[in-house]
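Lab notebook, bench 4. The sequencing result for the construct came back, and we need a structural model before the next group meeting so we can plan mutations. Quick request posted to the team channel:

Model the 3D structure of this chain.
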Amino acid sequence: MRDPVGLAYLLARAADTIADTALVAPDRRAALLTDLRDEIERLGDGAALARALEDVTRMQTDSHEHVLLGSMEPMLALLRAQPEADAASIRKVVATLTSGMEFDLRTFPDE
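Done. Here's the predicted structure in token form:
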């Protein structure tokens, strides 16, 4: 149980980093959250998402957030390796969180 929870946490932290970075306009952050959720839903390899996040990753001044965003491909590989029940739970958690984050960005873009 520890591995799926840890992976869900890392994906949620990556989503939170995307949502909270003031380095990118709110509409771009919302689009990146949609990309993240879509990639997780379809169990993609993360390559397209990593390319989409390159600018955001490069702009990060916090080294931990830089490493986290730069680790999307390995995190998605771990997600694909999870038993289906665990992967489904992770996808559900991340979908719920990113939907809420997107709503906040669209509703309160200046906060």
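The chain has a mean pLDDT of 93.
Will bring this to the meeting.
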